[in-house]
Every structure is written in C-alpha cells, then in structure tokens.
Amino acid sequence: MEAQKAPRINRDDSTSREPLPDDLVRDMDRDDLSRLVREVNDDGHGVSYQAMADRAAAAGYSLSKPYFQKMATNAVGSAPTPERLQGIAAGLHKPLAVVQRAAAVQYLAYEATELAGYDEDIRVIVAHLAGMAKSERRRWQAMMEAAERSARDDG
User: Fold this and answer.
1) pTM, 2 dp
2) What span, in angstroms and rounded, lies between the C-alpha atoms of 49 and 85?
C-alpha cells in the first residue's frame, strides 16, 4: 500500500484562502477564561503558570502547570469541571464567580441577561437600553448625566 502525500499548498497565495465561517470566528474569539489566565500571567511578567498550579495545589486542587498553559492558549477543548473551576480560581486568586462566568462564556456561549439585586424598574430600563444602537445609548447616557449634573447644581 502506497502512502499518499499531502497536497502542496502555496502559503504565499492569499487568493486561495477561504474566509472563515462567522460561527467559527465567533468560537475562536470566545476565550474569556483563557484571557483571564493570560492576564494574570501578563506575558510572563505576572504570576507564572507554575505558581498558579502551586496556588491551586495549596487550596487542595490538582491542576498542573501545563494545564494552565493550555488554558491560556485556549487549547483546553472541554469545559472545566466545577472542581477544576475552583482550582483555577485558587490559582488565579480570583473569585470563583468571576472564573465561573468566564468559563460559561467561553465554553457555553453564555451571555449575562440578568441584573441580580436590582428591582424590576431598573431591569426594564437596562433591557430597553441594551436593545438600542450604540449612538442612541450614548444619547441617553448624555441625557442622564446632564440630569444628574443639573440635580447636583440645584441641590
């Protein structure tokens, strides 16, 4: 049996490249948890991946230096377990809720739609603003800030 050679691709020929599908681009850009790990590492100027692993171990979670490195490069293909999320939070010295939300965005395409701790009036206002175009939101923001300044000046 003769092995087939891989097709030769001219890497300099940009016309042969097809654009990536929108959903693939979106998935590649979804890296909130990975970005959190990179930010703590700060390109090697912050906390090392080994220190992250040591912090996790000190908190009772067995996460390796290579795991944190893979997480930083978005090379972890499946969502971390709840126990691993606790280890990641310990390794990053971040609140568990922050790590959970980042993981939910990265692995589950989660988008926050709730405003815990606010009454219904506030949630309705925010929902309306969220549906507006950016230029219209800016106009509303300017009106609210002007009303606040006016109230301060009158008071």
Assistant:
1) 0.58
2) 16
